[in-house]
# Entry
Amino acid sequence: MKIIIANPNSSTQCTDAIMASAAGSNTAPDTELIALTNPKGTPAIDCTFSDYQSAWSLHRAVLDAVEEHRPDAVVIAGFGNLGVFGLKEALSIPTLGMSETAMAVASTLGHRFTVLTTLLQYVPAMEDLVTLYGMQTKCASVRAIDLCVTDCVGQREQTLDLLEQEAMNILEQDGAEVIILGSGGLSGYSEDLEKRIGMTVLDPVRVTVKFAEMLVEAGISHSKKRKFAAPPQPLDQYMD
Amino acid sequence: MKIIIANPNSSTQCTDAIMASAAGSNTAPDTELIALTNPKGTPAIDCTFSDYQSAWSLHRAVLDAVEEHRPDAVVIAGFGNLGVFGLKEALSIPTLGMSETAMAVASTLGHRFTVLTTLLQYVPAMEDLVTLYGMQTKCASVRAIDLCVTDCVGQREQTLDLLEQEAMNILEQDGAEVIILGSGGLSGYSEDLEKRIGMTVLDPVRVTVKFAEMLVEAGISHSKKRKFAAPPQPLDQYMD
Amino acid sequence: MKIIIANPNSSTQCTDAIMASAAGSNTAPDTELIALTNPKGTPAIDCTFSDYQSAWSLHRAVLDAVEEHRPDAVVIAGFGNLGVFGLKEALSIPTLGMSETAMAVASTLGHRFTVLTTLLQYVPAMEDLVTLYGMQTKCASVRAIDLCVTDCVGQREQTLDLLEQEAMNILEQDGAEVIILGSGGLSGYSEDLEKRIGMTVLDPVRVTVKFAEMLVEAGISHSKKRKFAAPPQPLDQYMD
Amino acid sequence: MKIIIANPNSSTQCTDAIMASAAGSNTAPDTELIALTNPKGTPAIDCTFSDYQSAWSLHRAVLDAVEEHRPDAVVIAGFGNLGVFGLKEALSIPTLGMSETAMAVASTLGHRFTVLTTLLQYVPAMEDLVTLYGMQTKCASVRAIDLCVTDCVGQREQTLDLLEQEAMNILEQDGAEVIILGSGGLSGYSEDLEKRIGMTVLDPVRVTVKFAEMLVEAGISHSKKRKFAAPPQPLDQYMD
Amino acid sequence: MKIIIANPNSSTQCTDAIMASAAGSNTAPDTELIALTNPKGTPAIDCTFSDYQSAWSLHRAVLDAVEEHRPDAVVIAGFGNLGVFGLKEALSIPTLGMSETAMAVASTLGHRFTVLTTLLQYVPAMEDLVTLYGMQTKCASVRAIDLCVTDCVGQREQTLDLLEQEAMNILEQDGAEVIILGSGGLSGYSEDLEKRIGMTVLDPVRVTVKFAEMLVEAGISHSKKRKFAAPPQPLDQYMD
Amino acid sequence: MKIIIANPNSSTQCTDAIMASAAGSNTAPDTELIALTNPKGTPAIDCTFSDYQSAWSLHRAVLDAVEEHRPDAVVIAGFGNLGVFGLKEALSIPTLGMSETAMAVASTLGHRFTVLTTLLQYVPAMEDLVTLYGMQTKCASVRAIDLCVTDCVGQREQTLDLLEQEAMNILEQDGAEVIILGSGGLSGYSEDLEKRIGMTVLDPVRVTVKFAEMLVEAGISHSKKRKFAAPPQPLDQYMD
# Structure
């Protein structure tokens, strides 16, 4: 089985971090994970403006890679909107955004989950995602440690302390028992955080890669009726 | 990996049908599926009264089997409430009800899903399940073909025709693109129905077994904080 | 008029406390209250696991008592799920759970109510009840004093202080003006608490007994169409 | 016990019909029902404009009657908004609107209820009431037979046929099992309709009178904190 | 263009304050704003009881003024319910309540808005308005500085300090970025508050006057089908 | 005042139709409307895939035009998502999407509105917009005449007949009284449709242009706190 793991931004360093998380997802021996960077994407995606400036070229890069590699599934490894619904229109193999998938899995693991992200100003956009996926009643809150991605990656101890502190607030004030780390910048923190607080913490890359593998093995994909029906025109008419 | 598949009712014929569905779920070669029938359960579970008359002994049978087999996960293969939340309190390995799991997966496959079940009078209880799992905005409707389980099992052509007819209503009137077959009595119909209508149709046994396998491989289980924390007293104090 | 008051657990001490509350409900002189203990129930019901381990035998005990006493109504005097919907299927006389009834009455007494219970870990299950009864917009919060039932019964002054403290939080932080004492262990506290804080405080046993009496006098019972229709099979087929 | 039953409009014929319904509510022998007509109200209340043109004088008439009769409770016997929340501010004895009370009771009698009213153009206002009382998830629909009140009162057979027809739609299309007759003009139809269709049908006058009696006997009234706190100024400053 | 600006209470001082706000709304040179005081209204509207005691005479005063002035639109300049839906039935020109209009505009200006009002006890009624206008998901909270209207008008510095303090809570705790000043008593504070906190602050009088002008220029009014259809009887039959 | 009206697709014919609608919006004499076509956009936007393929270059074209023309407001004249939230981050002048604005205005004009669009397969994406703008309770339905944009533009009589037919369904089955024409392809139909059916019909271009003018005159813009705060990095870092 082949799964494309697409990093929506242009940072190969970020792609490496994503693939490190994916490598820990314990896929089957014959599952090949193909890394894809979006060279025309923005260096980081930290607002809705950059989400849109990156998604269009991400879609084109994914479609090219699908033609080249003939994969069984595609994982969009960014915790945002990123037009994944548009890509599901264009493809009929399982196509998964990691924000939607992590929330679907988390919905079964506790009463409610919390999305814990980096920047405070990005919280409303995350709340919109929760709404878009119909997860309002399963989501207790969206919280942020308000640290930029660079610091999250560089300052491990400080980041872990901030995550732990917010996790306590999540458990005591918001009543959630499951945490989704809602940013690529928080890759690699799930295990340490889980050890510190004893709650279930999801790394969305890992869980989405496994979910994609599961769908392929089970022979399930998104419905091609209505919402994810193929675009009315041939795809290349939308991409000059 | 070992997964217990527990049929909540007392019918071994039903257990066989469940295991046939499970066998089609394409698990890994080293995944062992252990069938469990609930001898003190009711012959069929077709109302809330029988749900409760069966769940208590199901829980005990599962706990005994967990002690005996030391499995990695438990799947409750009945499309109802069945006190799965209570069993999640008692266990820390992944413990999955097939109604909740199928809805979580379906939530990612289309705009909205419909639960299609057998008896019309059971629809409100299914709607309560949708609410309990927080899936109201993802669920377009709960519908029934209003055929009893015996006829569903015995009258294949008639059942398939009724399913197809309701599937058309679901697509055109309710605006759902994904169907969950919400009854053990509808095991074995998903593939034929999918072929007839071109929509994604989920067999909840299959998808739940695969989901359980995924969680085990990914090292994820339900949170033991709050909702699924261990009962305040030792378990045997609740079971004389 | 005869009303069965069924204690879902096996503690006769608890049955006595319930009947003491019921005695204060100021029923008509000719209303006879028949106490029922559930001998096969768990000693206490403090989690979903025990809810299911108790409900099945509760249902059977109630059905036997109905045959023996021919009552006009049945009150399930436990603040939980307890499969009351299943019992409503089995019976056509008014059959009332005290959690649902207290919430329905509270909905008319203020902008929003709060359920105040004993153990913190039981809060999510109470929130599920609120959802199940469709009372989300009327319920401001579910809170707990986090004291076990034994202490609630034994440590009156401490319990009252904790209740008062939470009541202040409820009024100031949650914006609710009505409190439902959501546990049998809090029987007998409503009047003292109401005096201390000046808010309306409901003892669910009292209000449910009166509600049952009202329905009988008004000739009203639950609808036997759809949700509470009789089970498809004769009752004894579900109880060997 | 004394209960004031206030007809919000100026029609004494309507007051008589209300009192006839109330008489059938099987109150205790010592419960005295005091009829009140609102002489400055509109002849009928069939739109929001007339709701407001009637409510102000209704409130004044009720306050005068309370001073004169010293009742134990007040029932506003009109199926509308009628500013009952304002009257609850002004009074501390149980003060009940029949739309809110009937919905609270109906919430316990089935999966969902339907409000069945007279004029089609009044449906949105009824839907607003459902929302105002927080009963959205318990209310399957608001429907109308689209017959004016005069015809409802005068054309019994036609009215009953229309009600039966809509009741079938309610059961089959909307999935509700309980009907609330949402208009004074439909007083006296509940029993015949219930016989024809086998569903629970509530006459809101009857159920509200009994509910008021229950609250008085149980010593319960609406909370005087926040929403129904006394107006900031003495009452007569609001009434010149 | 002529727009009637109706103050629902009887205070001409309040009418002056409203017209001062309206004057700052930068309407077109040929837009004439006609002030209307409700002489039979209560001196202030600070509870639901006074809302109803004022609305009936407000409606009559407005209808008289419409006949006299033949305006193009009517603005009800009180932040409450005030039966505006009833007045929309009676009129076919644009008829706007300032609470509904301000919320509609605010819905486009940020993720969520907060209504900030004067008295704490009036908060639940404001929350009911939010629900009535279908703005629950756009409204983060309703808050109060708990100062009576007289003090708001007289103690400018204290009021501004309290508003600023609550605005900080709104931004940090409730996650709203837009504030609606929900009381006539807070007229004239929007600009100073906006300067202090850097958030968008709406003066509902100003925004509603501009909105009314916009509708007239665009040739748009409320639909006269269903909800705002003319009352079934001629208007004067409702007003003796 | 200068307002940029940006057509998100690359069709100048479509830009002309938008400007024709805008011209009918009766703006002030000194309001200058500046047309902008998105040359790198797709020829039509009829699915989520094309929404994303067009939005990125639309944003860049708008930012360039803002620098060149220094307008007072920007209107995005496409009925979709189009990343308008991202553009609001980038700009501090009023920036309006016509789907969000039309819904906000429609929310005040009736009990509920319906979005009536062209293609059936685009309905789920429109439903997502309704959710994103928090308008679920104000929106009765999203419906489609299932005619492609080309036919809508070319076949006037057929289109008008289909619109009228759906409008009848909307009024009778969905209970909405206001229609929003949810597609650029339906520009120019609002007046004729309104005449035929007597309901309020909104042309989103017209209403949004007027709304933008209103905000500018009133000195109001979206809040720059949180959701629409400027992106964390300088804008050109997101656009190579």
